Fold:
Amino acid sequence: MNTKALILLIALLLPITLLAQQVTISGYVTEKKSGERLIGAVVYIPEKQAGTTTNAFGFYSLTVPAAEITVRASYVGFANYSTTLQLTQHTTLNIELDNAMDMKEVVVTDKKDAIQERTQMSSIDLPIQTIKSLPAFLGEVDVLKALQLLPGVQAGNEGSTGIYVRGGGPDQNLILLDGVPVYNASHLFGFFSVFNADAIRSVELVKGGFPARYGGRLSSVIDINMKEGNKNKLHGEGGIGLIASRLTLEGPIQKGKSSFMISGRRTYYDIIAKPFIKGNVKGGYYFYDLNGKVNFRLSKRDHLYVSGYFGNDKFYAKQKQSADQTYSSSFNTDLKWGNATAVARWNHQYNSKLFGNLTSYYSQYRFVIATQTKSTFSGTNEEYLLKYSSGINDIAIKYDFDYLPHPNHYIKVGVGYINHTYKPGAQQTRVSTAGVNQDTTIGTKDIVAGEIDAYIEDDIKISHALKANIGVHWTGFAVQNSFYNAIQPRIAVRYLINEKLSAKASFVQMNQFIHLLTNSSIGLPTDLWVPVTARVPMQKSYQGAAGFAYTHGKGFEVTLEGYYKTMDNVLEYKEGASFFNAGSNWEDKVEIGKGKSYGAELFIQKKKGRFTGLMGYTLSWTNRQFTNLNNGREFPYRYDRRHDFKIAGIYQLAKNIEVSAEWVYGTGNAITLPIGYYNGPDGANVQVFGERNGYRMPSYHRADVSIKFMKRKPNWERAWVIAAYNVYNRYNPFYIYSSTNNQGNAVFKQMSLFPIIPSISYQFKF
Amino acid sequence: MYKNIVLALSAIVFLASCEKEITVKVPAYTPKLVINSNTEVGDSFEVTIGKSVEILKYKANKDLSVIDATVMLYKGSVVADTMKYNMEKRAYTSDIVARDGDVYNIKVNAPNMPEATSVTNVPSFVPIADIQRIKKTRLDAEGQQQDELRIRFNDPASRGDYYILSVYSNYDSSNVYNYSYGCIYTVDASVESVYDESIDQNTCLDGNAIFIRDALFNGITKELRLFVNSALMEPYEVDGDMVYPKVILRHVTEDYFKFQKTYRFASANAGNPFAEPTNVYTNVNNGYGVFSVLSYSAKDVK
Structure:
C-alpha cells in the first residue's frame, strides 16, 4: 500500500469530531416482553437523515445537532417505535419494542431496516422462526440445513449438514456460537447439526464482502447467537420427536436485571432399543447437547454474559462371556466425539459514543475411540487397552470497541489472541499380562500455536446515496518456530439508486491459517484440524462481488449478486488417498493447489405476512487445479454445481394451522468414473479412470412438506408437526460405483440414502 | 405392539440404503494394448500382450489376451527379434537374453488396435551380501516380540537404483506348512510406503514388497534394518528338513518400481467408493502395463 493510499485511508477512518453543538443519543434496544436485547435493530432520526443499527449487544449511538427530534426504531417482526424529544444534551434512551405477534397488528417496518440501506452485501439473516417452521428431517429442526436453502450455499451429500459456500470447502466456514468457533458442528456423521434451534436467537450467514472484524476462514462466517433468557418471566419450550427430545427453560434471576437460559436435547433410540437387544453383546448410540447462558446487568454501563455449550456423540458396545468357572472375558468399545465451549463477555459503555466488549472463551473438540478387553483364565488376568484420541483446544481473549463519533461514521476496532492446541492423534496401548504391565503412547505430540488478530473498520456515509465500509484485518500466526502473517484489506461500497434499490460492490482478501483434513463428503468425527506447516502453507482468497439489493413494498427482499473468487493453497486428496487409512501422516495424503469459483446468485425472501418464504437460484462454476492431479489440468470441484435452485414457503393456513414446503434442485456432483479396464500382471482387473471429476451424477432434487396443528391457551401452547422428507421418494445419488450384475456384466450402481421419510413430533411452549 | 414400534423406528432411523443399477453415459474410450514383462536378468525375454476394453464391456473372467499381435524386440534401435506366441506359456517369447546394462525397445501391433511401444534399461544383478538376525530386540505396539534383520547389499554407483524387497516368513497356522508375509517395520528413510505416507516405527509395511530407492546410499553398501515378529522368523521342519524364512531382493527399473506401487495402491483401494481413484503408472506409450527387466537375489534367514 503506498503512502497516498494510506493517508486517504486514515483520513476516511478519522472521525469528524469538531462539529458544533453536537449531542449524542444512545442506549439499548430490547424486546419488551422478554427484556432480550435486539441485534441489528434500526434506530433512525428522520429530521437529520441519520440512522444506525444496534450492535451484537443491542447498543446504539447517534450524534446529531441539538434540536427537537423524532426517534424511530424498528426490527423485523416487531412493532415500530417512535418518540419525540427535545435534544439539548447527551441523552440515554433505552427503547423497548413490542413483538408483533403480541400486538396482533400488521407491522410496517421502517424502510431504513431494508437490505438496500446496508453497506454489507452477500449476507443473509434467516429469522429463527422461519428456520423452525421449515420441514425438518425426522422432526429435528436444523439451523445448518436451513442455511443450505440459501443461494451460494450448497449441501454436501444427501442429508448431511455440510456447507459449501461459493466454491469453498467445509473447512473454510467459520461457525461461531456466541462468538466462539465450533470446530465440528455435526452429530451422527453429519446428519444433524449441533445447534438446538430452541436455544438460538439469531443466525446470520456472511459469504462475501466480509467486514474487517471477521477473519480466519476463506469462505463464510456463520454467526449464531444463543438466546439471552427472558428477564421478566419464566418460560419454557420443548419437543418430543422420533429420535430426540428437547427442553428449554428461560427466566429472570433478578427480574429485569438478569436472566438465565438452559436448553438440552438428547436422542433416545439406545434407551428404547435396549430391551430388544438379545445376546451378550449390548450396544447403542446417542447424542446430546446442552446450552446454557446467564446475563447480568452489573450497572447502567456494564453487562456480563456467560454462556456455554456442551455436546457429545457416543457409540458403544459391550460384551461379556464366560465358558466355565475357569474362563471369563469382557469387551468394551467406545467411540465418542463432541464440542465444548465456554465464553464470558463483559460489555462496558465508556460514554455515549464508545462501547467496549471484552471476550474470553474456551473451545474444545475431542474425538476418542477406546477398546478394552479383559480376560481371566485359571486365575490369570489379562487386559488390553487401545485408545486413540485427537482434537483441538482454543483459549482466547479479545477486546472490541464500537466507536460512533458521528452519524456518518461507525468505527469498529479490536484485537485478540488465541492459543490453539492441536492434538493430531495419539494412540495409547496398555497391555497387562499376569501382573506385567506395558503402557505405550505413540503419535504426534500436541502442537501449540499462537494467533493474534487485529482489525479496524469504518462504515462511512459519504453522501445520502453513497456508503462504504473500509477496513483491514491483520493476522499473525506463530507455530513450530515459524511466524506467518497476512494483512487483509476489505472494502464494500453501497450506492442508493432510489429509496428501494441500491447497487453494491465489495472486494476482500481472506487468509486461513488452519486446515481441515476431511473426506469432503461425509463429515466424520475423525476430521482433523491442523495448523499451517512448512509443507502446507496458509490458504488465501480474493473475492470480488457486485450486485443489487431491492425491497418491494409488499415485503419482498430481492438481491442479485455476481462474484469471482480465487483460492490459493487449497487441499485435495492425492490419487488413491482414502480417509479410511487412519493414523497416517495427513500431509502425505494431500496435494496443494488452487481453486476458483464464479457465478451469480438471485435471492428473494419474504419475511412478513401470512405467507413467508424464500427462493434462491445460483448459477456457478467452481474448479480446482493441482500440479500432480489430472496431469496438471484444471478440473471441476466435486461440488461444482452449475444450477442450484431452492424454494421454501410457510403459509398460515388458518389461525391454528401452518403448512410449509420446500423443493431443492441441484446439478449432480462431479465424480471420477472408470471408463476402461485391463488385466494386470497377476490377472487382477485394473481400472482406467477418465478425467478427474469428469462425470456428473444425476441431478439432485427433493421435496419436503410439513403441517403444524397448534393449540393456543393463555399460558400454554402446543403443536403437533407431521412432516415428510423426500415426499416423492426420489432416489438421489449418494455415490456411484462400477460393479457386475448377476450375469457377470459390468454395470454402474447408484447408492441412495433416504427414501420418503415421514415423521411426527410434538412441541410445546409455556 | 411396543416391539413393532421399535422395529418401525429402526427402519426409519437406520434408513436402509437403496441401491439400483443406473445407466451411465461413459465417455468415448479407445481400447489399447497392454504389455507386461517380468523378465529377469540373464533370462530370455517373455512378455504378455493383452488389451483394455471399455468399462461397460467388462465380463467376469473374460480373457483379454491378444495372441495375434506382432511383437518386435529391439536391442537399442536395432531389430533383435520378432517374438513368437507360446501357447503353453500364454506369452510372447524370444531367444534374446536380457543382459545387464543393455537397452531394449518393444513395438507391438495388433489388428484394430493402436501401436504400443516401450523401452527399458536392464538393471544390474545385485546380490544380497549378508543377513544378520538379532532375536527379540524390541516390542511392537501390541507387546509382541520382534527380531531385527540387518540386510546388506552393495548398491551400484549409477544413480537412480530401485529395489523391491520381500520377506517370506515361515508361518504355520494349522500344522500345514506355508509361506506368508507379515508386517515389516522400519524407520529407514530410504524405504517408501506404497501409500507415500510417512513411515515410523509402528507403520506396518507389507512384507511382500518393501520399496527402496538409493537416493540416500548411492554407490555404497547399504545395511537395511527391518523388524519382524519373532514368531514368524522361526524355522520350521518339513519332512526332516529345516525350512528357513527367506529374503528376496529385486533390483528393478524406476518404471517397474512406480508401476508396482500404483498397482498395489489401486488394488488396495478397489471397492472403496470413498477413495480417490488411482490411475496405475505405465511406461507403455499409447498403452498400459510395464515393460521391464529385473534382477533377483534370495537368501535364507538363519
